Amino acid sequence: MRVNELKNFIKSIVPGEYYSNRFPVSSNAPDNCSAVKLTGGFPPDQWTGKRQPSFQVRVRGVDDQECEERAYAIHKALTNLKNVKIGDDSIVIIRAMSSDPLMIGEDENNRIIFSMNFDCVVRPR
What we know:
Elements: H1 3-13, E1 18-20, E2 33-38, E3 54-61, H2 64-78, E4 81-86, E5 89-96, E6 102-106, E7 112-122
Parallel strand pairs: 1-2
Antiparallel strand pairs: 2-3, 3-7, 4-5, 5-7, 6-7
């Protein structure tokens, strides 16, 4: 699974402005957007080849309530999602690593940021 494939998959089920790996820093970048990055996960199983990658989705915005609502929408859409394709990978399940999105603070422009971490089980090819 590649980060752009994952980003596009999430965008297809929860529309919005998404970026790979980090938020844009240019002056014309949108305040309300999300960043998706792969975060490692677990090593492939030596016997079956099953993989368990993990990823993080961060949501930023200027309005606290709107930002929180977007974070919860993504969290709800991805938590325990089963039997989907992301790129060439067949995903058995996506699991949230926390019960709710976590507000992690604000950036240098006072935009609030929520963070969510997930892992998934990928069927061996």
